[in-house]
Amino acid sequence: MEQCFFNNMSEKVVDDLRKTVVPGSRLSIAAASFSLYAFETLKDELWKIDSLRFIFTSRTFVKKRVSKESREFDISKSARERTLNEEQSARERSLFGSEFELKLRNQLNQKAIAVECAEWIRQKVKFRTNITDLNYQTFMHVKQPDDDALYTPFNEFSAVGLGVEKGNNISNFSMRVSAPLSNDYINKFNECWFDESQFEEVTQAVMDSIATVYKENSPDFIYFVTLYNIFHEFLNDISEDVLPNSATGFKESAIWQKLYNFQKDAALAIINKLEKYNGCILADSVGLGKTFTALAVVKYYENRNKNVLVLCPKKLNNNWMTFKNNQTNNPLVTDRFRYDVLYHSDLSRDSGSTNGLDLSRIIWSNYDLVVIDESHNFRNGGTATGDDFSADEFDDDIDRKENRYQRLLNQVIRKGVKTKVLMLSATPVNNRFNDLKNQLRLAYEDDSEKMDSLLNLNNGIDSIFKQAQSAYNAWVKLPASQRTTQALLETLDFDFFELLDSVTIARSRKHIEKFYDINEVGKFPERLPPISESSDLTDVAGISFDSIYLLLSQLQMSVYSPARFVHPSRIEGYIDSSEEKDLLLGREMGIRKLMSINMLKRLESSVYSFKLTLDRYHELVQKTVDKIEKYKKSIDAGNATADADIIYDIDSATLEDDEFTGSVGLGSVGLNCTLVPG
Q: Which positions ≥6 away from 135 have C-beta within 8 Å?
């Protein structure tokens, strides 16, 4: 038989084989894989052969390599073993058709082909596999009664190898030779076939695998196989290092027993995200038990002997202190929680105490986990004033001013032990995606490259948020009829949703009702339409909300704007330029308006709350005046000091945290105001 060349385009191997494989032929094949669809293509010829011997050129249908990661520290070796196992699995799956035989698989006749192929194998075929790491050249040898033919290379016995499908190769050349050129190939094949030390019998394993195609399976099995094929790529990314370790005993804790299934799922997912990405935002809707879910996470880390800090607004202090106090109203007293509870505003303080903790002695950098309740209060981020943070950013000898966000980032998260961050907020985004980004910055320590390396995304986290904000800005400008949720979702990049899925958990009540047993949770209360009522504040003539609002508008609140009273000749003692002066005055104006709104909120709550607020504000003003008078007297006596200890921190002002909500002091809200003698 003369030598022939095939390009598998105009001249194909399959066409020549139909002529070469005659009744009584004996076939010997060495290839990487075997496909049902190669049998289907040549079944008329293959049923007439005498026998077929098939060698898988690499490990196939034998026990996969066992990774020795637990006993060895050779990471590169372990990675190589995982790669080899993945390649072996791919070869075994190609038995049912490769990705390039999709058109054949879509004909949905795989079961009938498998039944016929299994019977053919049972009668005529034997399989062996190379169990060594040595490479083996691929070919197909056809021994006719009076002649022979050898096709090489013959990488796979599939529709691609036969030239029926193109595959992903630039070229798929093959050639046919005959004796005496083919003699060395078949002699080596015979030698290998009988070498049991290097080639193992796998015929039964191949038949068992084919049987899975045509045997009847239960609906449950089909369901789980479907789930596996949908999510197996995600399963490959799972590592025991980031999965919750049940051996810690946290599932036997009192808090775990009190959780609903949807809360348990959230707690496990949070632990996984904290271990993998160092941070997570739990953004479940109001009323879904974010605090209890977070307590389960806290218990997990406390059982691993980790130090936990809870940062919350002052008004939520009792929510957290209840579950760690040794008192009768603590339903989780047996868990013996030991986390510390501090306020958001404590990040602006260097002295005083909170819940019995001396702020001047706290080691902020020694917390392994920080839980931030109402984390949206940190959505504005912040840049420290003064010197830029660089190599000496943790040098305590450098005098610089930090706002709360910067203090949390630099002194708690970046400094000291590796700190994980769990953020709780039902509203992590106000009106811009940067709100979410600033909170996530805490998790990746404001090092976007670190997060980019952990996320399997096409773009960096900065560009993802930039694109998302641009898409949102364009969506807002659309006419009302086109400004739909679906329209916004279609304009957002897939990377944005991938990012949210990686580091956030956000579920609504509808989600819980749809995907969980509502009989276990109980029906959520129906939201009734609001009833608007307008009643008079009092029956005293001349007093109304409007009149009180006018009076509040006239209130100067000068205690919150000390810069207005600095003499022009002394202004350089506080600021460096006129531009900074305008900025400072603007900020002070903002804080005055903020406090006016705060008073209206107290009035909205109750007249009694409003009265308490006015009394506390009056006391604050009086204490400030007393300090100024004391300072004046010290000047007259000739012993004035350069620091009158009047401190007010504008950067840290919020509606939730001010001296109105607790005991009266001189505040903890922004401008460091030092009286300069003279």
A: 57
Whole-angstrom CA distances from 333 to 255, 290, 329, 591 are 10, 19, 9, 42
User: What is the per-residue pLDDT across 95-112, written as a single tens digit (0 to 9) for each?
Assistant: 666 554 555 455 556 788
Task: Please state which of the ranges 63-72, 112-121, 404-413 shows the lowest mean pLDDT.
Answer: 63-72
Query: What's the CA gap between 43 and 54, in Å, rounded?
Result: 16
Give this prediction's pTM. 0.58
Distance CA 292, CA 295 (A): 5
Q: What is the mean pLDDT of residues 224-233?
A: 79
**CB neighbours (10 Å) of residue 355?**
14
* Residues 25 and 49: beta-carbon distance below 8 Å: yes
Rg (C-alpha) for the chain, rounded Å, is 37
Q: Can you tell me the distance from the alpha carbon of 362 to that of 373, in angstroms, rounded to the nearest whole number? A: 20
Domains of the chain: which residue ranges?
4-219, 242-384+398-447+502-521, 545-673
Q: Identify which of 253, 456, 380 has the alpha carbon closest to the alpha carbon of residue 244.
A: 253
Q: Which CATH superfamily is domain 242-384+398-447+502-521 in?
A: Tandem AAA-ATPase domain (3.40.50.10810)
What are the pLDDT digits (tens) for 588-623? 787 878 888 888 888 887 888 888 888 888 888 888
CATH top class, domain 4-219? alpha beta
Residue 644 above 60 pLDDT?
A: no
Per DSSP, 65 falls in state: P
